[in-house]
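Box 4.2: Ligand-aware structure prediction
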Amino acid sequence: MLLYPLFADLSGRLVLVVGGGAVAERKVSRLLDAGAIVRLVAPELTPSLRTWTNDGRVAHVAALFDEVHLKGAWLAIAATSDTVVNRRLADAAQHRRVWANVVDDAEASAFHVPAVIDRAPLCVAISSGGHAPMFARLVRERLEALLDPSLGALALLAGALRDRIRRHLPAPAARRAFYETLFHGRVATLLRSGRPEEAQQAAEEELAGERSAVTGSVVLVGAGPGDPGLLTLSGLRALNEADVILHDRLVSPEVLALARRDAERIEVGKEAGRHHVTQERIHVLMIAFARAGRRVVRLKGGDPFVFGRGGEELEALRDAGVPYEVVPGITAALGCAAYAGIPLTHRDHAQSVRFATAHCRAAGADLDWASLAQARQTLVLYMGVAEVETIRDNLLAHGRDAATPFALVENGSRPEQRVVTGTLADLPDLATRHAVRSPALLIVGEVAGLAGRLAWFGANDAANAYRIAS
Ligand code: SAH
């Protein structure tokens, strides 16, 4: 059966709903949203249906279904739990040429109600032709993630400008290019950033040709520590819209695989001691691509604002007048802790948590060790694998107990994750013995001692990827 998709204007039109339960309530609610006049036939009603009836929004007929109830209706929906009644309605409606839907009975239905993604006035409707409604719902979930909530506002704005766009840009190709710019460019960015007035103004400027029709933008996206499931929905959307992706080496291939297929991918990663691309060069690239009208995603491991130089990159974009957005990511501390079963705070063990980096040119000379060594706090050190000895010595020298547990999480949240645990005194030895390599994160504090008991991720086999040593 091939269905013909259509969107019906129900405002001011009579629709019959038969049934007074939860399903009928959902149907009536949507119909009222669409401006329909609802005639509701049911002996009993849910509290909401009763309220709508009392408010005069629904005309209630307290009876069992009878064919006469179809009189004057454009559509009918059977939502009772009684198959016989539902089928009787379908037959009567067929006879009178009224379109009828029977809930969960594709065969008896003359029309189907699709799964809907609502970005009013924009609406995406999905149907499986009655074969697999659950499948349609799963597709809907996928698309929900891709379509930003600001899309409705964008469609309204485009609608308001429609006549002027048509007059200004009579050639269809030029019009299409303009809509593309609205959809992908500065106007959409401003709407997503919660700035509708500026978006309106930007659209006017672009229409008046005051700006070049092509303005690119940069989205700084946090890719999380590795597991692609830890990417945010906004991050996924940005990756789907990107023309160019400038990514760090640390970003996992699984996350990159989620990006638009034809997006250009450029690795601008830096490794300790081995600088592929300088920070200045990254700024130059981002700005040049955006100025050429490209949608740039600057994809960084973890969160862009946690030891990621995201601030510097925004400064450069701001100075260059390039529009930007920031999508946060799960920083390594949160990702590694969760995937190693280490609660960063704990009522019994740690009332605060510190994130610091041990990668200082002078091997930690300017870190405030006295405060990092405080008891009852969890210390998370980024970029510290090469410095474990200095870290241990300094923490001990500043009073942290030698028996304090630590956990080194290597490749956190990735399939090859390893966790090495022990006590502070043995940190350098254990790191050497297990040949812990970057990227690895060091967690020091009583909570690290819970890793053995609360572990849930990765192979639990010492010969394999996952190891707890003590
Ligand atoms: N902006 C990133 C941090 C960049 S600094 C964030 O928010 O996570 C790079 C350091 O992060 C690495 O040296 C390592 O200490 C840590 N790191 C990042 N990803 C990691 C991972 N999957 N496992 C363990 N450590 C990780």
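In the box above, the bound molecule is S-adenosyl-L-homocysteine. The CA atoms of residues 313 and 319 lie 10 Å apart.
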